[in-house]
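Hi everyone,

Forwarding the result from last night's run.
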Amino acid sequence: MAVKYSAFSYKSGNSFVHKCPAWIKILFIPFFSICTFCLPPEISCGLVGIQFILAFYLKFSIKEQFADLKPVIYYAFLLTFTKAVSFAAQFFLNRIDAVNFSLAQFFDYETFAMLLKLFCIMQLSSIIFKTSTSLEIRGGIGIIESSIRRFFHLKPENSFTDTISMFVNFIPMVSKNWQQSERAWKARCGKKSLKMYIVLIPVLFSVGMKQAYNTARAVSARSR
């Protein structure tokens, strides 16, 4: 039986991106994000295309790529819906002239540029998560913290690595838990509806809290 893909989950490979040290990839994210927001959106558009090509080179399917990009897509729909409701309210309350209305009121340049940049950054984060295991991410964060401590002449004990690495790896864990819950719901002949979200969201929260508690206990036991 085919295993359903979980968003932001690791996918094995032997590419140069997989072999790149995790600490380099982790440091590249904030640098890339700052540059993306500072540079014109036309550059972000080109980077989106390059990252799509890179993802195909890494053998990530279209479905796998868009599974990680859903938050930005949902955010875009939410913005569009909010603008549509706002315009409708103004139209009926203030009698806005419908002749002067254009689609540019929904899709203004600033909003489109922001969404494009968010899409670009999410793409990079997706590629890094897909090509780095949880252990590699933890090791990369540990290397960064150790370097910072040496630079500022602090104690060599890494006190933040476990906390930060657990927080970073929380994203794929939540995605995996949600997809497992959704598959269990559908296996019991449940339909994808509002009722499914009402029932499964508390389950997702409960399972996530239990996993976080067990992980924290395991880390605490190993650090003694």
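The chain has nine helices and no strands.

Cheers,
N.
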